[in-house]
What we know:
The complex is a heterodimer of chains A (about 100) and B (about 210).
Chain A: H1 24-38, H2 44-56, H3 58-75, H4 84-99
Chain B: H1 19-40, H2 43-60, H3 70-84, H4 107-110, H5 121-124, H6 128-140, H7 143-154, H8 159-166, H9 170-190
Amino acid sequence: MxxxxxxxxxxxxxxxxxxxxxxxxxxxxxxxxxxxxxxDELPSDICREIRTHLGACPNCEVFIASLRQTVTLCRHRPxxxxxxxxxxxxxxxxxxxxxxx
Amino acid sequence: MRTPAPKTSRQRPATQEPDGFDKxxxxxxxxxxxxxxxxxxxxxxxxxxxxxxxxxxxRGLKDFRGxxxxxxxxxxxxxxxxxxxxxxxxxxxxxxxSLEDFVPTSEGEFRLQIPMEGLSPEEALQNKELRQALDxxxxxxxxxxxxxxxxxxxxxxxxxxxxSIMGLNERAVKSRLHRARLFVRRELSARGIxxxxxxxxxxxxx
Lengths: 101, 206
């Protein structure tokens, strides 16, 4: 992992001073609704309002893109298939356990 | 794109043993193994959970009245068994995830990105670092949030179905799902995942 030099030295943000100030309250409200927005569960007027905000707020736009990517990655997370030998041995173990009750 | 749930009948499975159980097992073991693996994150625990699920299903088969789909019934049994199972590998945080925790506190944090621009999700997940980060993020989620994320975003069930499986209303399912997604997003972007093309390190130095 490479460490990159950044132009500005990293500072610990003061409480709220480094918050996303442009329309801060709005951005926080938006954050609460982002999953509903990307799942298309919000009424159309609220969706329109959010889209308008996203057009004017690059930070929120990047945030929502990364949340969408997160959902996409989760959906495509691979699972190894069940081995035939495990399918057979588990069935036997279940039936044995059921019969020893 | 969600993984479609397999077609399952609402009919009551035959209760004649062992045929009824064999059909139930044959038709659904792959589904339940996949679910168990997604919840547990590794093979041995997943197999334990599958066995526990089908053992409980075997015992409950004669009382199953076909009011729910067979798959929903099995998901419910597996979910309850998973909640009961103790984690063997390490302690698991059981804290609540607060939305406030996910409000970015700096512009840099708002703009953290996941390195998959221009890549399909399959290609992105070939990046070992990203794949591990995803696995670890899901593994770190408290169980009740992980379960909502797995059922909704990986198994592709509706919020209503997830609610019926987890014994929650839809609103609670959506709330857990949202927090789980925000958690995974933060874990993926805050770890400074890099790829080989000198993409920006998105790390916060954490």
